[in-house]
Amino acid sequence: MAPARQRSIRRGLLMVSVMFIAAASAGQGRSRGRIVAPLDDTRAPLAFHYAPSLSPEALAWYSRFDVLVTHDPLPRDQVEQLHAAGTKVLFYEWSVAFYESRATAWQRSLLSDGRDLLNETPLTGWAGSMDSAAWYFDPMSPEHEFGRVEDIVRRLRETGYDGVFFDTTTVASVHPEARKEYEIRHPHVPYDLAFSRFLVHLRQRHSAAILFTNQGYRSAEHYLPHVDWDLTESLITGPENGSYQLRAWNDASSPWSSTYFVMRTMIEPLAAKYPHVRFGHLNYVSGASAEKIRIVVAAAQLFGGHGYAAAPSVGEEADAIYFRDAGKAVSPLFDTSGGKAAWRFFENGLIVVTAANHEITIRNLSRKGLRNHLTGELHCGDTITLPATPEGTRAHFFDYSAGCR
To answer: What end-to-end distance do the CA atoms of the chain give, in Å?
Structure first.
């Protein structure tokens, strides 16, 4: 992964400011300035928000999610309000390094003894800031394996937080100069294996903590056995000409930049191999776009995961589709020849993502009525036919209905 893309989670989420809240209930438009909550008490699994504190409206919105990842810890009273609503909160931790300007007391203590760090002088760039001095951990150091664990446990206790989000994991995120030093010091122990020892000890030291990695799947055997969540970032939308646009669904000429191909080839097999790990899919939108948000949610759910779309303001990322309860998958993933469309049946209905330039006909396995979740249109019969989407990708959500006779 390119360093610029590795930095995008910090850059993308730090731009989010609490300006206003808007939400759309299914089939309705947006209402700016206030939350329009779903009619029931359903919750959604995952959200990200990096503002230092939450407005009352934002607090109400994020209280509807099971897990909220923040950057720095929120004020303690807001943490308690989120807890009272049933929301767990995780703070941000740069996996491979720290900035001197933001160092904890324990991190600053490492600067006096170079044995615990991989660079003698500060480094900038790569997966870190181009301006701020960064110091890279040596994961083979006992201070990293044990001292860092105690530092994190202390911060969890002091802030009341429930877990940690580890950004930019794996050796690919380590500055080349620091990586070279690691390989000189420890030629027989791969970096990611050494880092996994820290995760093992953190899990042993605080078994209740939620551990969430960003792209641990890239070195799955060293990360996924030890965590509760793993993240893909910008897999469904990506930066293009100064804004975030949908990636191709399945472009044969560029498969590793295509959502369907990466999900089917990489993520789906790992989800099956590590069933205890929940996969989150964080993407960005440049402004209000219900269509993009719904594609993020649909694509994530098709492959057993949970999607969230972060935007420049909270109001632009709020959408009631997060609270549609699909239930458990009750069928395998189906697709058309060439993977231009994919669909799956769930306990409560059907989800389809299509980028096909022709109509898609799906056999209704349940033989129940299917009502379009967004438009209310009812489909009866043994099949359902969806229109061609020659100009892009579209998501469809259908709920089972007793309206057919």
So the answer is: 53
To 5 degrees, how large is the angle CA 306–CA 308–CA 313? 165
**233, HSE (Cβ side, Cα atoms, 13 Å):** 25
Structure pTM?
A: 0.90
State the Cα–Cα distance between residues 11 and 2, nearest whole angstrom: 14
Element (H, E) at 238: strand 237-240
Q: What is the mean pLDDT of residues 177-205?
A: 98
Report pLDDT digits (tens) over 78-132: 999 999 999 999 999 999 999 999 999 999 999 987 789 999 999 999 988 899 9
Look-up of token digits 């301006």: 131
- Phi, psi angle pair for 263, to nearest 5°: -60, -50
**Count of Cβ atoms closer than 10 Å to residue 338 Cβ:** 11
Please give the biggest Cα pair distance in the chain: 77
Instruction: List Cα–Cα distances, 258 to 1, 234, 306, in angstroms.
Output: 14, 11, 18
Residues sharing a CB contact under 8 Å with residue 272, sequence separation 6 or more, in sequence order: none
* Encoded amino acid at 124, one letter: T
CA distance 66 to 85: 9
Residue 101's Cβ-count burial label (10 Å; 0-12, 13-18, 19+) is exposed
Q: What is the 3-state secondary structure (H, E, C) of 10-60?
A: HHHHHCCECCCCEECCCCCCCEECECCCCCCCCCEEEEECCCCCCCHHHHH
DSSP 313: B
Decide: helix, strand or coil at residue 239: strand
Structure tokens belonging to residue 228 = 């509760």
**Of 347, 360, 367, the residue nearest 396 (C-alpha):** 360
Strands 237-240, 243-246: pairing kind: antiparallel
